[in-house]
Automatic annotation (TrEMBL):
Protein name, UniProt field: N-terminal kinase-like protein
GO biological process terms held by the UniProt record: vesicle-mediated transport
Function statement: Regulates COPI-mediated retrograde protein traffic at the interface between the Golgi apparatus and the endoplasmic reticulum. Involved in the maintenance of the Golgi apparatus morphology.
UniProt xrefs under Pfam families: Pkinase (PF00069)
A molecular-function term among this protein's GO annotations: ATP binding
Keyword Phosphoprotein: yes
Compositional bias ranges of the Acidic residues kind: 753-762
Organism: Panthera pardus
Gene for this chain: SCYL1
Keywords assigned: Coiled coil, Cytoplasm, Cytoskeleton, ER-Golgi transport, Golgi apparatus, Phosphoprotein, Repeat, Transport
Length: 806
């Protein structure tokens, strides 16, 4: 019977790379790149080939194999696996590069920073301290060839071939027999007796001084070169001189050397070293310490090496979020580190965390995700956005915190290109309709209008026809002046999406009404838009053959390319209104709804006053939206552009800030001013705003009313004018039309657009009525119970043994 022996090298779970070896420490070992057969993960393999007649070298190699296998320390080369046969020794470690090769590669790329060198030397000294103070071992081979660098830039101490015990067990130090290594021996070993050595660490600290010299100055030519520090930093020179002193007794212990270098002003006293030390002990840190660390980490990441951020900081951030409940504080450093990853790594490491974060109910995490969405939106695919992210994001539209509602609106600019038909044309439009009509924050209503104009090109043709005209028309009736400007610019920016019929019958009548707006900025934009639409209509009138070319985008399918025209005008509200909203939130955190707090616009100039009582022009009441014409005229005239697509929103931001500056208090001043200006209320603005849809279809609502008779001399009552109703009012009270409209059963829903039937909103309205009826029944029940309790208390308690008298 034949027995066949299997080759252990072939069965070894690691294989050598076909690339040539990288070299290794002077001696018997040769360093190869390799990989694990099962996973393909990279490793380093040290190979020693047993040669006949080299028994001493073989014993040294086997001793190094044993030392590396038994010694475990973060700063010592990590052992993974090994193979020992009669022909060779294989030692598998983490993937590393010899320090000499690493420094040469980095020098070609610009060189290492002192931050990296300080942490690398810190690691080597810490490994020596572990060997000398904790294990009583002398390394006996500290030099450039014994140090390796992993993919994170961490320095590891290797070269354990000539290690021996400091207690004298197992004999003295082994003979090296390699001239390249013997030049690092201290001078006291020249006599060969070793009697001059006073401390067990003295020889290794001398060799550490040689290593420091080589790191900053290159290969050491001879021992006499140590007298000249060369490029060694000044903060390190005093401590370096202690290491290479002739007296071995004054050479410091590795632990004391670290302490000296970590002193204030020391070479190793910097933010990079402190960050690494904290990361090494992060598992035992208190939650408050972790929170503070992650908050300050993002400021320092820009100065840290890229490899360190990718391979050391990123795993700690992911672990802290997954298991440490770090929360929103890890987002900023996480996305900053994510910039160093390629698309595949980002998908594997960052995106799963982001998707999980969106499902969190933590408001701080939600708002930070929305604020930084532009950093990761490009890595999200459409199925992930529609099924795992958008359903959570839409809850922000209903949040009670205005900042979250605002950031949710802004995020739609980034999410809209990836939304499907149902989410974009139905769900999102429903929330936009509610925000534009009901939100109490004027800047949020303005942002909703601007965002709608920006994403209009992504909507389907039917949705564009149904929504855009109604939404922008509603914006022109908003009491917040920047919202009215946004409505005008929204019409202009999406001019290519309207038919000529719509421009003439729907858009121009709305814009003409704004030519008498009390705000000059609104009037200026209205006049510019009217001129633009009129020129478009006139060109088609002169040459009817242009109609097909002009209306080519009206019925076209949604196209991302059509949104480029709105980019310039949408920029202000997306990037600048956050400061405006934050001012409102900080100054008035408990503001009442806009319907009760925001006063109505004053009647346009040139129209008769609705009541004889006139407020003097010099008196300004808190909560009024009037602005000083002199200030706004100067600001607006300087920013007029020739084309509406290139409109500068900087002037609008100034306008919004000037409007806000004149409001002292939304919660109290609004009501006071509203009560004080009752006689100044404009019935037209109130009736048109509350009954935008009460006039039926577009064809019915835009019928030209019969021209009124020329007014007689003096002031006429507001009731004599037709403010948008089908019939003129006969009542003398200027508010009769308003109150009667509010009491009619045909009052429209303010959170719907145009003539379309929004089923979701009707359901919500019915639910609101049912909830109101339930509350009334509940109040009635409590009243009845209270009455019964009062009757029972009036009679008093009945006594036992007594008979109730008739």
């Amino acid at each position: 019977m034949w027995f066949f022996a299997r080759d252990p090298v072939r069965d070894f779970p690691f294989e050598l790379s076909p690339d040539p070896p990288e070299g290794g420490p002077p001696g018997p070992w040769v360093l190869h790149r390799g990989r694990k057969k099962a996973t393909g993960s990279p490793v380093s393999i040290f190979v020693y080939d047993v040669k006949p007649g080299a028994e001493e070298q073989t014993q040294v190699a086997k001793a190094a194999f044993k030392r590396l296998k038994t010694l475990r320390h973060p700063n010592i080369l990590a052992y993974i696996d090994g193979l020992e046969t009669d022909k060779c020794l294989h030692v598998v470690t983490e993937a590393v590069t010899p320090l000499g090769i690493y420094l040469k590669e980095r020098a070609e790329a610009g060189g290492l920073k002192d931050l990296e060198l300080s942490w690398g030397l810190h690691q080597i000294v810490k490994a020596l301290s572990f060997l000398v103070n904790d294990c009583s071992l002398i390394h006996n081979n500290v030099c450039m060839a014994a140090v390796f660098v992993d993919r994170a830039g961490e320095w590891k101490l290797g070269g354990l071939d000539y290690m021996y015990s400091a207690q004298g067990n197992g004999g003295g130090p082994p003979q090296k027999g390699v001239p390249e290594l013997e030049q690092y021996d201290p001078p006291e070993l020249a006599d060969g007796s070793g009697r001059a050595v006073r401390e067990k660490w003295s020889a290794d600290m001398w060799r550490l001084g040689c290593l420091i010299w080589e790191v900053f100055n290159g290969p050491l030519p001879r021992a006499a070169a140590l007298r000249n520090p060369g490029k060694i930093p000044k903060s390190l020179v005093p401590h370096y001189c202690e290491l290479v002193g002739a007296n071995p007794k004054v050479r410091p212990n590795p632990a004391r050397f670290l302490q000296n270098c970590r002193a204030p002003g020391g070479f190793m006293n910097n933010r990079f070293v402190e960050t690494n030390l904290f990361l090494e002990e992060i598992q035992i840190k208190e939650p408050a310490e972790k929170q503070k660390f992650f908050q300050e980490l993002s400021k320092s990441l820009d100065s840290f090496p890229e490899d360190f951020c990718r391979h050391k900081v990123l795993p700690q951030l992911l672990t802290a979020f997954e298991f440490g409940n770090a929360g929103a504080v890890v987002l900023t450093p996480l996305f900053k580190v994510g910039k160093f990853l390629n698309a595949e790594e980002y998908q594997q490491k960052i995106i799963p965390v982001v998707v999980k974060m969106f499902s969190s109910t933590d408001r701080a995490m939600r708002i930070r995700l929305l604020q930084q969405m532009e950093q990761f939106i490009q890595y999200l695919d459409e199925p992930t956005v529609n099924t795992q992210i958008f359903p959570h994001v839409v809850h922000g539209f209903l949040d009670t915190n205005p900042a979250i509602r605002e950031q949710t609106v802004k995020s739609m600019l980034l999410l809209a290109p990836k939304l499907n038909e149902a989410n974009l044309n139905v769900e999102l439009m429903k929330h936009f309709a509610r925000l534009q009509a009901k939100d109490e924050q004027g800047p949020i209503r303005c942002n909703t209008t601007v965002c709608l104009g920006k994403i209009g090109s992504y909507l389907s043709a039917s949705t564009r026809h149904r929504v855009l005209t109604s939404a922008f028309s509603r914006a022109t009736k908003d009491p917040f002046a920047p919202s009215r400007v946004a409505g005008v610019l929204g019409f202009a920016a999406t001019h290519n999406l309207y038919s000529m019929n719509d421009c003439a019958h729907k858009i121009l009548p709305v814009l003409c009404g704004l030519t008498v707006d009390p705000e000059k900025s609104v009037r200026d934009q209205a006049f510019k838009a009217i001129r633009s639409f009129l020129s478009k209509l006139e060109s088609v009138s002169e040459d009817p053959t242009q109609l097909a070319e002009v209306e080519k985008d009206v019925h076209a399918a949604s196209s991302p390319g059509m949104g480029g025209a709105a980019a310039s005008w949408a920029g202000w509200a997306v990037t600048g209104v956050s400061s405006l909203t934050s001012k409102l939130i900080r100054a008035h955190p408990a503001a009442a709804p806009a319907e009760t707090n925001v006063p109505q616009r004053p009647p346009p100039e040139g129209l008769p006053a609705p009541a004889p009582a006139v407020v003097p022009a010099t008196s300004t009441t808190s909560g009024h939206w009037e602005t000083q014409e002199e200030g706004t005229d100067t600001a607006e005239d300087s920013s007029v552009a020739d084309r509406w697509d290139d409109e500068d929103w900087g002037s609008l931001e100034q306008e919004a800030e000037s409007v806000l500056a004149q409001q002292e208090d939304w919660s109290t001043g609004g009501r006071a001013s509203r009560a004080g200006q009752t006689s100044n209320l404009d019935p037209k603005s109130e009736s048109d705003w509350s009954s935008w849809e009460a006039e039926g279809s577009w064809e019915q609502g835009w019928q030209e009313p019969s021209p009124p008779e020329p007014p007689p001399e003096g002031t006429r009552l507001a009731s004599e004018y037709n403010w948008g109703g089908s019939e003129p009012s006969d009542k003398g009270d200027p508010f009769a039309a308003v109150s009667s409209r509010r009491e009619t059963s045909a009052q429209p829903r303010p959170d719907s657009w145009g003539d379309d039937n929004w089923e979701g909103l009707e359901t919500e309205s019915r639910q609101g009525k049912a909830e109101l009826a339930r509350k009334k029944r509940e109040e009635r029940r409590r009243e009845m119970e209270a009455k019964r309790a009062e009757k029972k208390a009036a009679k008093g308690p009945m006594k036992l043994g007594t008979r109730k008298l008739d």
